[in-house]
UniProtKB/TrEMBL annotation:
Residues 87-325 form the DAHP synthetase I/KDSA domain. One of its GO terms (molecular function) is transferase activity. It comes from Candidatus Gottesmanbacteria bacterium RIFCSPLOWO2_01_FULL_39_12b. This is 3-deoxy-7-phosphoheptulonate synthase. One of its GO terms (biological process) is aromatic amino acid family biosynthetic process. It holds the Pfam family DAHP_synth_1.
Length: 336
């Protein structure tokens, strides 16, 4: 159950109500939001206590939620979450395209890429400055200077920025340069990081772990939501299966399932989801048809020379074709 406190409730009144809950042995987690405070109830209690809570002068309303992910559940909110970033809205009819290289490699590379990304019809520039690579000998990213190059290129071509944050210690630094924090598949259950991002107020794109169930993804998002950050995007990026021909298996079942279960926007990453550049356009079209709110695409000026994930990066020319094709699919399913 979720308890919505009266807007503008004073500290003293909230303290009185919390004391009442303690007396009734009702355990709660407090959630601080911009417009309203709410309390997420842990465990069960009797019908009488529920009526007492509902009739309290400090309570605006209560909401029964029958899912373990209380705040992410579709029943926790009227209508879908719409995330607004400086004039751009994620989660409405318009499909959002996020594209760029796996890694920021140089100032000139990311600037020219940003220009091409803008021309192709994308709204958000992606690029990694801190890279979680499988081997410690692989290119790990440019770090802070990479963030600076990314922000500068995006600003020049009026694009928003998404980039990965890997460590709690880097949240403050990355926040200065990005519009959207990306949490990668390996960090989906990095709970200290998720808690820290819950304190931030910038949007977080949470990628599904390559091993994770839908429930585990939604419960991971709950760590961010319970911190008071309502701006969370879920991302399907492929899971490990017995299929050796692709890097991962892009699980598009996730899109309609998550749309049924949660009010949060859902993005699909067909680049990691397949690991093969020649499959990206087809799976992008399929993702739009399945009902996703946007795509996260790896695009490079010369994919063969990419310092990371070269096999799954498409050229910026291919990206232009992809966006055109996806807009046709979007129109067919009532999107833009």
């Amino acid at each position: 159950m979720i308890i919505f406190l009266k807007q503008g409730i004073s500290f003293q009144d909230e303290k009185k109500f919390r004391s009442f809950l303690v007396e009734r042995k009702v355990e709660v987690i407090s959630v601080e939001r911009k417009k309203q405070k709410l309390l997420v109830v842990i465990g069960r209690f009797g019908e009488l206590t529920k009526r007492e809570i509902n009739s309290s002068p400090y309570v605006e309303s209560i909401l029964e939620v029958d899912r373990p992910y209380k705040l992410a559940s579709k029943s926790a909110k009227q209508g879908p979450t719409l995330i607004k970033i400086n004039g751009l809205t994620i989660g409405n009819k318009e499909i959002i395209y996020m594209a760029g290289p796996c890694s920021v490699e140089s100032k000139s590379q990311i600037r020219v890429t940003a220009k091409k990304i803008k021309e192709s019809g994308c709204q958000i520039l992606r690029g990694g400055a801190f890279k979680p690579r499988t081997a410690p000998y692989d290119f790990q990213g440019l770090g802070k200077i990479g963030l600076h190059f990314l922000r500068e290129a995006a600003r020049e071509f009026s694009l928003k920025v998404i980039t990965e944050v890997m460590d709690v210690r880097d949240v403050e630094l990355v926040e200065k340069y990005t519009d959207i924090f990306q949490v990668g598949t390996r960090n989906m259950q990095n709970y200290p990081l998720l808690r820290e991002l819950g304190k931030a107020r910038k949007t977080v794109l949470l990628k599904r772990g390559m091993w994770a169930t839908y429930k585990e993804l939604l419960l991971a998002s709950e760590y961010i939501l319970v911190g008071g950050n309502e701006n969370v995007i879920l991302c399907e990026r492929g899971i490990r299966t017995h299929v050796p021909e692709t890097r991962f298996t892009l699980d598009l079942n996730a899109v309609p399932y998550l749309k049924h279960e949660t009010h949060l926007p859902v993005i699909v990453d067909p680049s990691h989801g397949t690991g093969r550049a020649n499959l990206v356009r087809a799976m992008s079209r399929a993702a739009i048809a399945a009902g996703c709110d946007g795509l996260l695409i790896e695009a490079h000026l010369d994919p063969r020379k990419s310092l990371s994930d070269a096999d799954q990066a498409i050229s910026t020319e291919e990206l232009t074709k992809l966006v055109k094709e996806c807009k046709l699919i979007a129109k067919a399913v009532g999107r833009q």
